[in-house]
């Protein structure tokens, strides 16, 4: 156990791509936590996808020992946090384990939407905020402008902002000095019953669930009988230790310390992020604040292209869930796509990452349907049905009204692009709330808008209409009634369930028209004419036709052509396998995502 | 040593395996390359010398004659290419040498492929005297601008003269025509069809213009210098051919082949009905049954389920090369061979017998094709419909079992 006055717990927070993980790497090097020869980029991002995409998905914690200018050696616990809005809850739990943060702002990009969101989260948690202007080695770096944006836009004094470069290592020592000097040391009662926050967890195939914890009161050591308060799970402590960044067992973790906890529990659902660990007997009665169940916001159908892979997909989802309790799913069957799963995600990035991991790490070939949100359908007879899939939307005749999740969206953008953002938000049913100038170069706009509109390539559109300048953050604000209808797509007269979607009634016509046109381009000509129709209930609102193909090869077939012909047929088979046959119509995979790429 | 039931095995009984009765000989020379062609052929610039080509080809054939096999009299011999007629008098020599080595059956069909510019009355008579019964002339079109576009080195008058030369020599004449050539009107197409018939052909092959990869045509289309064949024009052209030739007394016995009664190509029919054939020459293919494959060393002497073997010569088999340099050998099981026969049989108007469908285990596939209007079943035979012919890929792939 370390004297709490020599402990500093801090986090690095930033907008995505502002260089948080690289900075963390430099901290590990500077403190000799990792030998130079073992250093690999983004050490704390251990997943391949994290390194490739340059993003952090899982929180990480590492203990470093820092010899400060005052001659003391400090125990610094650095908690790296996910940088994406999908993982906001994980960020908030990570912050709850800290007393301070380094707020990293890119010296060229300046303050962006998640800079604001993360800074606000840190302020709400009453954390000491140390601004750090990163990437000062870049030619486009403008630290003075950024300093100004931090002060004006975030109301954080930035006179003494650390100027640093994760790339060259410049300023990293200054940052650690600032942490020692400015971040308060942890305060807790060593005599009180154990109270520790679980701020992350992961699954180890040999050890079971490993929880990352921050001790608030009391202490925890091997052999102790403990309880997880939210799940009322009682278990024994098998091992406690610290991460440097490899796991090093220690005897005890005391007040203010950060480390890991192994109990032998194999079921991740019993060890929840945000939960409080206490003693099994005479434990604390009050949980640490802030715990909530993580709720998926975005749902999509995942179907194996090869129906035989259905059991493999289920196994793979179970394996992923061990490390990602936010992932939930239910079996779903589609006339068009066969058996698959309706999978819930925290957001679009989470969805992409999971799909990519399923395909890459488990060798699955998957078809994803257009993402949807959770609708609440209130029926005339008074009950409410939770709708995760457009297929489950009750008949219009039985519906009283439908509610959908709304968000508060925050967009930061240079003033020149305010008009473009407003136009887009308007098209996406956004309600303007307010707007303020953070600085002469940055405007902050607030909108309330349905989540369903946001997951329709809103971010891509925002980026392209603002030449990449806009940044986005959003938070969930609850359910609101909307006039929504289910739009069905019929191919050759038969509804294709996997192409149905829910849309606001005012936009149904336009979207039906664009989508049928898009499908006409995507669906290849077949032996028969294929009518493509968009319908609301029994009412057809638009129609296109894929002309019938008139022939399919009448090539010569003499002695030498026969083997070649057979091989050609085999090759065509491989091409066809990438399509889904619905009735007599072959539908390419991209058709199922076409709805996402509907420009209006 | 095998013995036949009831027969005494005598020392003089012939246990050698009988070879196919169909022979294809490839002459990989052309006077020039056509824009659409991807067959193996080199431009005839006098090298290799024609005599050497003849000698080499005969040597190739001799290579197949091993102590384990015996030739049977050939039912069909087909000299294709390339353009065999560029050999001129040496072509006569080639046929003489080949038939000296292997006897022709009485009534054997002997076909020579010809291009109009090298098929003279003198050559026609000489070939007829040597036992040639049939000439297949690459007319392609009687529209002179289309001929230029296709990179042909003859005009329509030369083509008609070549047909006349064949007819006058007493040969069965077949004309190859290409439909769907961009720029050729429906009327011009019909003139080509009627023109070759009026000139005296008894057989017509009609193929859509097909853009093969890496041909000058493909490059020209890619570069936007010429139009790609239009699907509607191709299909309309196929329909017009069926109508016009039907009206003129031709029977469409295969998807792309029309003949007056008694004038079908027996050699090509062998391909479509699963008859073994030997092919020799650069790029030539052959197909033999299991016993023949074993006797020829194309398959292990024992073991394995080998219904047939297909082989191909390397493209560059020219004088000076090693004999029999095969580039590929492929084995098909008995079941696969039956399925292949079923697939190929559906190119023919006769279709396939119920028995073959059962042996090939393709009855369910055929039933699904009937349901889609691509195949009919009557009098114990499965036959393609007109629509089935147009959607050959669908028919073949369901029969071959690669769909559904």
Describe the model.
The complex is a heterodimer of chains A (600) and B (404). Chain A is α+β, with helices and mostly antiparallel strands and 600 residues long. In chain A, strand 12 and strand 13 form a beta hairpin. The model of chain A has no long low-confidence stretch (mean pLDDT 87). Chain B folds into 2 domains: 2-269, pyruvate-formate lyase- activating enzyme (Alpha-Beta Horseshoe), CATH 3.80.30; 334-404, Orthogonal Bundle (Arc Repressor Mutant, subunit A), CATH 1.10.10. Chain B has a 9-stranded mixed beta sheet, sandwiched between helices. In chain B, strands 14-15-16 form a 3-stranded antiparallel beta sheet. In chain B, strand 9 (172-179), helix 6 and strand 10 form a beta-alpha-beta unit. In chain B, helix 11 packs across helix 12 (354-360) and helix 11 (334-345) runs antiparallel to helix 15 (392-400). Chain B is globular. The termini of chain B are far apart. The model of chain B is unreliable at 1-11 (pLDDT under 50). The interface between A and B is medium-sized, with 23 and 41 residues.
Decide which structural class fits the backbone of chain A: alpha+beta
Strand ordering within the main sheet of chain B: 11-12-10-9-8-7-6-2-13
Name the average pLDDT of chain A.
87
Q: Name the helicity range of chain B.
A: 25-40%
Count of DSSP-assigned helices of chain B: 15
Q: What Rg of chain A do the Cα atoms give?
A: 27 Å
Largest sheet of chain B: 9 strands, mixed
What is the rounded distance between the termini of chain A? 61 Å
Rg of chain B, alpha carbons: 22 Å
Defining key terms:
heterodimer; A: 600 residues; alpha+beta; 8-stranded antiparallel beta sheet; 6-stranded mixed beta sheet; 33 strands; globular; B: 404 residues; alpha/beta; pyruvate-formate lyase- activating enzyme; Arc Repressor Mutant, subunit A; 2 domains; 9-stranded mixed beta sheet; 3-stranded antiparallel beta sheet; 36% helix; disordered N terminus
